[in-house]
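Lecture 7 notes: from sequence to structure.

We start with a single chain of 372 residues. Read the sequence below before looking at the structure.
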Amino acid sequence: MPQERSSPKQAVLRVLETEDTPALVIDRGMIRQKYREFCHEFPGWHIYYALKANPHPGIVEVLRELGCDFEISSQGELDLLLRLGVPAERIISSNPVKAPAFIRSARDAGIDVFAFDSSAEVDKLSRLAPGSKVYVRLSVPNEGSEWPLSKKFGVETEEAVDFLVQAQDSGLAPQGIAFHVGSQCTNPSTWAKAIGKSRAVWDMAASRGVELCALNIGGGFPVEYTRPVPSVGEIARVVREAIGQTFPQGVDVLVAPGRALVGEAGVLAATVLAKADRDGEKWLYLDVGVFNGLMEAVGGMKYALSAPRGGQNERWVLAGPSCDSFDVISTEAELPELEIGDRLYIKSAGAYTTAYASEFDGFPIPKVHFVE
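Now the structure, written as tokens:
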């Protein structure tokens, strides 16, 4: 986990230096910039923010004002969007595993777009939300993804077609195919492979009397942590070319970024609480750890770090504050000699940080601050 020497922008830095830690500072301007980039690279396509990445009301308000639509999974997310005045026609649910009470509430609110990947889910939707527009979740390659999703969700080609037929026979309105290449995917060709596989389902469904009109390519767009990643533009070129060559003209395309809209907009400020030498290793303990803000570190996420204090870098074990040995952020953080009370800035922390966080062991979730 190398130290990142470039400083956050001045408006962010002022908050990082003055507010109590742990604190997450989010740049509204960068969120706007990222959303406009998606609109530019996917012209005429529908952009949905995957709310799970960071459901803070301040982020919802920024994206709602820009005209962004929203993708949700649960009652809590539905309640949040309705409370903030997001119209039902701008909300879809792409989670193929839904609580019956959530389906009822979503349908009552006017939401009529859902995903499924099992016969039981088709039965549930046909009973609780008859006539809804539905997508089958297809299992696709997750090559280049740091968090593959293909094992938990999605079905293979022939089964996907069977479920689309079942959905139509059950009074639902099949619209198309949904897929997800996995979170933080750095291989653009993975999208092209998923698009090709989706076309096979499309044609097989048509041969059985199910005419489709839409494709939901999900999210998975990466952000930069400690190494360069393909840009939205680079991935978009591959996706547009693959769809143009594979699908009929006029196909309706949905895109659902989460991390890519908010990840790089956030910087997390932490304070060094303690330090120690243990069995030849140097340890730093912060007031934020895997339980109250950096859960993705458990899956191997390596964050770029910025230390205001200069000096020669050394290797540190970076840990959180809780009384749990699982609370280790990194075993290879490259940082100068820091002292108790020094601050450390963790970059690209806008997604899947506070959204995952709990107050385990009594330690607070980072307070969120916004800057322009």
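Residues 265 and 334 are 23 Å apart (CA to CA). Keep this in mind for problem set 3.
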